[in-house]
Amino acid sequence: MTTVLIADDQPMQRFGFRMLLESQDDMTVVGEATNGTEAIRLVDRHRPDVVLMDIRMPGLDGIEATRRIVATGARTRILIVTTFDLDEYAYDGLRAGASGFLVKDAQPEELLSGIRAVASGDAVVAPSLTRRLLDAYIHHLPPSATAAPRPEDPRLATLTEREREILTVIGQGWTNTEIAERLHLAESTVKTHVGRILSKTGTRDRVQAVILAYDTQLVTPA
């Protein structure tokens, strides 16, 4: 049974999420929060598997709540549910440690599969969407922030040449299937490499690996 906490300041949104989740045999809602502070408190109390986290809430927002929940080392995973085209802060939510994001007008099946994926330790953001978001953010940075060379990040030092290559194409939006086909590898081998990359770099999931690829300039904005 996957336990879920809903954090959203809109009552109808929370009601809709609850109705959908409680229609599933493998999910249960353990609480509802109307702001970030309440979400942190309820995560500490209920230790849910997944938090559906809105970003824009009164008081403490979803980004800072995500950052504080992740900082505790809790096993709870954060799935940001936001209006992607309007919300410029989704990138910050991913950097804060969220395992992915979905738009609020996603199909019910997408939300349910996203929750299950996050609960199992996977990321739910399509790599192409992640790249779109990161590119949109980075293009708003001052030129010096992306142009200046940086020292080698110590997180990359432990990677083999193949692992570095795979981290680079993950950042470019390639799926495991595409990596396997283009690099002439078995998909199971790709999954093994991805697992090792996450372990060696200390990244929580694929989304965080994409962010790492940008931060270390393995990938630059398109």
From TrEMBL:
Residues 3-119 form the Response regulatory domain. SMART domains: HTH_LUXR, REC. PROSITE patterns: HTH_LUXR_1, HTH_LUXR_2, RESPONSE_REGULATORY. Keywords: DNA-binding, Phosphoprotein, Transcription, Transcription regulation. The keyword DNA-binding applies. Residues 152-217 form the HTH luxR-type domain. Pfam families: GerE, Response_reg. The modification 4-aspartylphosphate is found at residue 54. PANTHER family: TRANSCRIPTIONAL REGULATORY PROTEIN NARL-RELATED, TWO-COMPONENT RESPONSE REGULATOR. This is Response regulator transcription factor. It comes from Streptomyces exfoliatus (Streptomyces hydrogenans).
